[in-house]
């Protein structure tokens, strides 16, 4: 028999945020962004590929004129942890000078990726530069320079999948946020 979409995936240890939880969080974040950017025309920049699902939901909860664009970065280093050495694989198609820019990120872990991106985007002289992070992982040694203006939820220091987040390109299509069983990523 076909598995119910709501059934927990066998590689997932537990669900942290259900589809209903996510809907509530994104609705709240959309309202916050709408309030702060009223009368402006912000450019939402999603970091590929993990933030795509969140971007799609968040933008539909923002009730003001906006634009979207995408960047892809790759961080050198081994699988599960980012090294902080970030390379732009796909750059923006939009000029951001003088624009109100909102970076849309799936998860803030060490903060290395975001601190690199913020430095890079700041140098292009946007009018403002803020971050909306769907998740913030509570880890020791997180870069204190990266403080998202909008935060969806905090998650424990474990490997998170679903709602765009992957392990080795898998699990992005799970409709919930779950914790991957450690034996799957070999810890
Ligand atoms: P940071 O540079 O350590 O903050 O890592 C940020 C990026 O690493 C995120 O945008 C994700 O793509 C990825 N990442 C970090 N933690 C997880 C996780 O638990 N599951 C899936 N991807 C993650
Ligand atoms: Mg990412």
Mean pLDDT: 92
Q: Could you list the spans in which at least 5 consecutive residues all have pLDDT below 50? A: none
Instruction: Give every kind of bound small molecule, once each.
Output: inosinic acid, magnesium ion
Compute the number of strand runs: 9
Share of β-strand residues: 25-35%
Rounded to the nearest angstrom, the radius of gyration is 16 Å
Order of helices and strands: EHEHEEEHEEEEH
Shape: globular
Main β-sheet, in a few words? 6 strands, mixed
Strand sequence of the main sheet, in spatial order? Answer: 4-3-2-5-6-7
Helix/strand structural class: alpha/beta
What percentage of residues falls in helices of 4 or more residues? 10-25%
- Straight-line distance between termini: 32 Å
In DSSP terms (H or I, runs of 4 or more residues), the helix count works out at: 4
Outline the structure in words:
The mean pLDDT is 92. The chain is of the alpha/beta class and 187 residues long. The chain contains four helices and nine strands; from the N terminus they run βαβαβββαββββα. The two termini are 32 Å apart. Inosinic acid binds next to strand 5, helix 3 and strand 8.
């Amino acid at each position: 028999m076909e598995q119910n979409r709501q059934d927990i995936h066998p590689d997932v240890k537990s669900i942290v945020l259900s589809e209903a939880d996510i809907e509530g969080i994104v609705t709240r974040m959309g309202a916050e962004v709408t309030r702060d950017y009223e009368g402006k025309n912000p450019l939402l920049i999603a970091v590929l590929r993990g933030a795509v699902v969140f971007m799609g939901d968040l933008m539909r909860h923002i009730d003001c004129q906006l634009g979207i664009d995408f960047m892809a970065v790759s961080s050198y280093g081994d699988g599960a942890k980012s090294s902080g050495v970030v390379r732009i694989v796909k750059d923006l198609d939009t000029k951001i000078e003088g624009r109100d820019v909102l970076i849309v990120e799936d998860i803030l872990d060490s903060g290395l990726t975001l601190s690199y991106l913020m430095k890079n985007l700041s140098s292009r002289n946007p009018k403002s530069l803020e971050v909306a992070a769907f998740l913030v992982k509570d880890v020791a040694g997180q870069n204190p320079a990266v403080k998202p203006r909008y935060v969806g939820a905090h998650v424990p220091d474990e490997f998170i999948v679903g709602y765009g987040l992957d392990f080795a390109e898998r699990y992005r299509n799970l409709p919930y946020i779950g914790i991957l069983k450690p034996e799957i990523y070999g810890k």
